[in-house]
Amino acid sequence: MSNIQNELVFAAECQIKSLAPNKIVEWIPYSNLQNINYLTKGGCSEIYTGILNKNNWKAMELLK
C-alpha cells in the first residue's frame, strides 16, 4: 500500500472507532477541491464551498 492509502485506512479506522463516527470533521487540502467559492465570514474564519476532485472521491469510496 502507498503512504496515501495507509493514511486513508488509518483515518477510516479512527472514524469507525470514534464514539460519534458520523460527526467527524475532516481536513481536506485545498488542492483536493475544485470549484471553490466564498460563502461567508464569521468569527475569525472564512467559509468556502467546493467539490471534491473525482480522484479523491474514488479513494474515499475504496474505504467503504
Q: Please, could you describe this protein's structure?
A:
By secondary structure, the chain is of the alpha+beta class. The protein has one domain. The protein contains 2 helices and 2 strands. A two-stranded antiparallel sheet has the order 1-2. The two termini are 17 Å apart. The mean pLDDT is 77.
Q: Any idea what the shape is?
A: flat
Largest sheet: 2 strands, antiparallel
Query: How much of the sequence is in beta strands?
Result: 25-35%
Structural class: alpha+beta
| Low-confidence runs of at least 5 consecutive residues | none
Number of strands: 2
Name the strands of the widest sheet in spatial order: 1-2
Order of SSEs: HEEH
Backbone CA Rg = 14 Å
Q: Total domains, how many?
A: 1
- Count the helices. How many? 2
> Helical residue percent?
25-40%
Distance between the termini: 17 Å
Averaged pLDDT: 77
Protein name: Serine-threonine/tyrosine-protein kinase catalytic domain-containing protein
